[in-house]
Write a structure and sequence with these properties.
- The chain has a nine-stranded mixed sheet.
- It contains nine helices and nine strands.
- It starts with 23 loop residues before the first strand and ends in a 9-residue tail after the last helix.
- The chain is an alpha/beta fold and 314 residues long.
- It has one domain (22-305): Alpha-Beta Barrel (TIM Barrel).
- The longest helix has 17 residues, at 214-230.
- β6 (192-197), α7 (214-230) and β7 (234-237) form a beta-alpha-beta unit.
Length: 314
Amino acid sequence: MLARLGAAVCNRPVTSGTEPAGPLLDVILGYDCNLACDYCTISPAMRSRALPAAAVARALAEAVAEGFRRVQFTGGEPTLRADLLPLVRRARALGFDDVKLQSNGLLLGAGDNLRRLIDAGLSRLSISIHTHEATAYESLVRRAGTHAAMVAGLRAAIAAGLPTRADVILQRSTMPRLQGALQWLHGLGVRGADLWFVSLTDHNRDNLDSMPRLREVVPTVREALAWARGHGFDVRSLHIPRCLLGDDHVHAFDPAAQGVRVVSPDARFDLRDSRLTGSVHVPACNGCAFEARCPGIRPDYLERYGGEEFTAVR
């Protein structure tokens, strides 16, 4: 465990703190986690699976040889890995210019954990806040007493000057607090947030009530985006097709667009082939002004609700 280690101009989003360009190596170190979020797609059986350090080292070396200069370590929860610091150092030594960690933040505010990661070469951080209110957060992650630790991780990152974004889940229970979450993050000094739409895959496949219709979500998202632009807060929306966002389509973010190679305990694949990436164009997409750069709609969403909400933008 780490804690034990020796469009329209008026609608253009703020771009401060955006990530470097170029292909990204996404290394899923393992599926173990110190939370049990109620929407998580990772099953209890998956939690024992992890990438051996030697496999991580090979993936890093191969990616550098192919021109990758960006890497992110994800999970599960990557800070549970006792070898996280050596892996960050290895990435830097091999030539990665940008080393990112995607974490729930619970261990980052303890002791000098974050400082040691930065000294090892960490250059960027994403912290999953899920939602910002303590009671709602702890109900969602299903572990009492964790909200304060998550906030401490955020505060430590801001105090250290580490470029930090927040990940916010869009599911039925969190939607009413979306704008409040962005305002709370802005007040802490976080520079931006990514909005992730809940997925009905794997362990969360049968949790149908967690996924609202996009037409229910979009008005709330657009209100939040308007607030964010007015306050210089950079927000990117994942998984909501541009046709539904209207003038706010400039906030649509396709992380696979620059090329993302995923290396997990189970497989190696391009992010475009992931079930968590939009990949289906329905007949209504034909002739849409965004067709060439829209990755499409996620299969799990279409299985749940069909495609009647989507209309080509002319």
